[in-house]
Amino acid sequence: MADYNRYGHSYGGGYSSHTPPPSAPPAPVPTTSAPPPSSYGYGGYPSAYPPPPPQAAGGFGYGFVPVAFPPGTHPDVERAFRAADRDCSGAIDEHELQGALSTAYHRFSIRTVRLLTFLFNDPASSSPSRMGMRPAQFVSLWNCLGQWRGIFDRYDRDRSGKIDSRELTEALRSLGYAVPPSVIELLIANYNNGVPRNGALDFDNFVECGMIVKGLTEKFKEKDTRYTGSATLTYDGFLSMVIPFIVP
C-alpha cells in the first residue's frame, strides 16, 4: 500500500490582524508662494501624488477593493500582501506574488510561482475583474512555505543551501510522502541537466518538486479511494491530472 498522507496547513498565532492607521495631519497653511493645498502630501510636504486611500474601519478594507485576512494573520503577512498589491485590486498576480515571496523566503523562479498559484488559488473565487491570488490563499501559501523552509533547513545538514537525494528522501518523508528511490532520481535529474548522480536542489527547486509530489499525490488519491496504491485512469484523465504540473 502506498504510504502517503495529505498535507495540511494549520497556523494560528494570536497576532492582531491590523495596525490602527495614524491620525490625519493638520492641513497645511497656504501662503502666497506655496502651491495650493491639494498639491501637498502627508505632513505638508509637496507631492505629485495623492495620499494613499484611507483604510476602512476595522482594518478589513483598503484601496478600491475590500480585503479581508483570516483571523490571526500575522501583521507581517498582511503588510507583504498590501505591498505586493500595488494597484489595490485585492488580488496579486504572479509577478507581484514572485516579488512578495522572494523578499521573504528565496528568489523563486516564475515557473515555481506559477505552480504555487495553480495549487493554492481557488478558481471558484476568481472573476474576470479580480484575477490573481487573494488574501486567504496568500496566507495559506505563506504559512506553507514557512514550514517547508524549516524542513529544508533541517535536512540541509551541511548548510550548503542545497539538499541531495538522500536528504530529499528524508525531507519528503517528513511531509508524509514515501517517494521511491527511482522517482527521487528522476526529480534530482530534472534539476541537474538530466544527471541524477551528485545532484542537489536549492530551496526553489525543493519547493517546486515537493509541490509536484504533493499535488500529484492528492490528485491520485482522488482516484485511489481505497488507498490501495493503484488506480484506473482514462487517457484524458491522466493528461488532465499531469499536464498542469509540467507546463510552466
Features:
single chain; 248 residues; mainly alpha; two-stranded antiparallel sheet; 8 helices; 43% helix; disordered N terminus
Would you write up a description of this structure?
By secondary structure, the protein is mostly helical. The protein has 8 helices and 4 strands, in the order ββααααβααβαα. The strands form 2 sheets. A two-stranded antiparallel ribbon has the order 1-2. Strand 1 and strand 2 (65-66) form a beta hairpin. The longest helix is centred in the middle third of the chain and has 21 residues, at 135-155. The two termini are 32 Å apart. The model is unreliable at 1-63 and 125-130 (pLDDT under 50).
N-to-C SSE string, H for helix and E for strand? EEHHHHEHHEHH
Radius of gyration: 23 Å
The largest sheet is: 2 strands, antiparallel
User: Which shape, going by the Cα principal axes?
Assistant: globular
Number of helices: 8
Distance between the termini: 32 Å
What's the quick description here?
The protein is mainly α and 248 residues long. Helix content is 43%, strand content 3%.
Task: Give the secondary structure arrangement, pairings included.
Layout: E1 61-62, E2 65-66, H1 75-84, H2 94-104, H3 110-120, H4 135-155, E3 163-164, H5 165-174, H6 181-190, E4 200-201, H7 203-223, H8 235-246
Antiparallel strand pairs: 1-2, 3-4
Helix pairs in contact: 1-2, 2-3, 3-7, 4-5
